[in-house]
Amino acid sequence: MELGLSPGLVAIVGENGAGKTNLLEAIHVATQGFSPRTRSDTQLIRFGESAAAISLVVAEAGTEHRVELRITEGAGKSATLDGAAVDSVDALRRRLPALVFTPDRLSVIKGGPAIRRAYFDRALGRLHPARGDLPVDYAAAVAQRNAALRRVDAGFAPRDILVPWTARVAELGTALVAARRSLIDDLSSGFHTRLGELGLEHGSLSYTGEPPTVGLLEQRLEADIAAGTTGIGPHRDDVRIVADGHDLRSFGSQGQQRIGLLALLLAEAVLAPCSPVLLLDDVLSELDSRRRSILAAHVATLEQTLITATQRSALPVQPSQLVEVSPGQAH
Known about the structure:
The protein is an alpha/beta fold. The protein has helices spanning 20-32, 92-95, 107-110, 113-127, 134-153, 162-197, 214-219, 221-227, 248-251, 254-269, 289-299, and strands at residues 8-13, 51-60, 63-72, 76-81, 84-85, 98-101, 204-207, 239-243, 246-247, 277-280, 304-309, 321-326, 329-330.
């Protein structure tokens, strides 16, 4: 299927089950390297087929770029940008930023700490590209230290083997904590404002992780050796998302959690070095007319937003393009 999408606000309308979400998912996979719905690549391949492919032409600063991504069963993903192979499909999102709202993505608010860490670490790469490799480098150092801890516990290596990895974890962990704090500071004001406009007061983001210094790591060395894992550091931290004075993860209703995620996306969108594509799936269904108008006013300032709805009347403004979706077709 070939479909041209204009800049500005694009409304994608159709009955439930027609394929609106699939269209947004395909754009997200091709630009971000992963699905917002599932981490299993095989679920992205049509039943009975061994591979799937997505092709996009993206306009960036007046220049068109062709992105092609292929998912092959048993071989993973591969991608090209303007005909040249991309070393890692994860690198696509640095060139082609996109933010997505889907009901599944509410896990950022109501899921466990690991999901929030992953979300904010990707946001770190989008807003502070120079620090974007920190989470990956830190995770690699922790994995090496954990492997060394298990070798020491099994008697296969002396404790001295831990010294360089402890220093490396402390160095990268301290840098990652500082980067996350800076990110949360950047997002907090916009999150608070957007949340208030959408009807929830006293919104805040807080990150309380402490740097894993060499001293702190050495203090718990015996426990780490016994467990075979590094017990402190940013790989165990969390971000607290608060609205109306309570933690949205534990005490927010689903409607409040949806507004919290939307406020988070809008806060990031205005800070991005280059305007991201905003993909909003089923975001209007639980917003009243006032909140829909507020949302429309904000997305009007972005370069491109794709928003799905079951009918055109759900959108309070005239879109720049209307795409009608029926099973297997879009026009």
